[in-house]
């Protein structure tokens, strides 16, 4: 498990990208905080400006939400599903089908908000679902590079306290499942995110929140993409 609370040092990895050739398939996976937000377009913009032209966004969704995102000309494919809970995605094997349709080399996961706010799920239940999902990712691609968020806060105080509890448990959970072939990176999306000023509706990021989320994802994604590209170059990357 690798933590990306401190991101600046990892920007030096950009120098490795020029050697990449084969397209690396990246799936943004989660709920509405992945689907109906603008951070995916901001990430695409960052990739393009850093010559990461080998990144292909994949997923069954192909939409831009909400209207008014500052970046409009980007690959909109994603696997964000509004209202979905990690426990249901896991128990119903939904990710299995999504990955069969759209195989990935790298995946980001921001899930758990609905489990807490709508499903009243315990931290243990959510982490158990995460474990199932990681197993499904690796069944699809044994070399999957997995990036898991400590999720952003929301404005409902009682729910937010449970988010804090979940986030505190994620690093140890990830460490227990981390492997060399399929590393799990933990990205702290919570710290520095203001539930009052960075949300547009109490749940979803506004323009400032989107910028913060993209900035947090980016260094971990650069690392994961470079690792996936290096494995592909050695002929070791699994082709689903």
What does this structure look like?
By secondary structure, the protein is α/β, with parallel strands linked by helices. The chain contains eight helices and eight strands. It has helices at 32-35, 39-49, 86-91, 94-101, 113-117, 123-140, 157-177, 207-233, and strands at 2-3, 24-30, 55-57, 61-62, 77-80, 106-110, 145-150, 184-188. Strands 1, 2, 3, 4, 5, 6, 7 and 8 form an eight-stranded mixed beta sheet that branches. Strand 7, helix 7 and strand 8 (184-188) form a beta-alpha-beta unit. Mean pLDDT is 89; it is low at 6-20 and 236-240.
| Derived structural class | alpha/beta
Sheet-strand content, in percent, reads 5-15%
Helix-strand sequence: EEHHEEEHHEHHEHEH
CA radius of gyration: 16 Å
- Are there runs of 5+ residues with pLDDT below 50, and where? 6-20, 236-240
The helix tally amounts to 8
Mean pLDDT over all positions: 89
* Count of extended strands: 8
Shape: globular
Please describe the biggest sheet, giving its number of strands, its sense, and whether it closes into a barrel.
8 strands, mixed
Q: Helicity level, as a percent range?
A: 40-55%
Distance N terminus to C terminus?
24 Å
């Amino acid at each position: 498990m690798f933590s990306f609370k401190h991101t600046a040092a990892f920007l030096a990895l950009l120098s490795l990208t020029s050697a990449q050739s084969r397209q690396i398939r990246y799936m943004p996976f989660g709920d509405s905080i992945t689907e109906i937000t603008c951070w995916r377009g901001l990430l695409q913009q960052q990739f393009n400006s850093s010559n990461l032209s080998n990144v292909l966004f994949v997923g069954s969704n192909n939409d831009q939400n909400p209207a008014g995102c500052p970046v409009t000309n980007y690959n909109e494919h994603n696997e964000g599903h509004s209202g979905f809970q990690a426990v249901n995605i896991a128990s119903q094997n939904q990710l299995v089908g999504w990955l069969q349709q759209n195989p990935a080399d790298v995946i980001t996961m921001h899930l758990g908000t609905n489990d807490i706010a709508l499903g009243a799920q315990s931290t243990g239940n959510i982490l158990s679902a995460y474990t199932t999902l990681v197993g499904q990712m690796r069944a699809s691609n044994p070399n999957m590079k997995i990036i898991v968020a400590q999720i952003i806060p929301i404005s409902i105080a009682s729910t937010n306290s449970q988010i804090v509890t979940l986030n505190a448990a994620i690093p140890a959970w990830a460490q227990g499942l981390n492997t060399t072939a399929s590393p799990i990176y933990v990205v702290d999306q919570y710290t520095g995110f203001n539930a009052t000023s960075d949300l547009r509706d109490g749940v979803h990021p506004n323009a400032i929140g989107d910028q913060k989320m993209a900035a947090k994802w980016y260094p971990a994604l650069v690392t994961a993409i470079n690792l996936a590209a290096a494995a592909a170059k050695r002929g070791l990357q699994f082709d689903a």
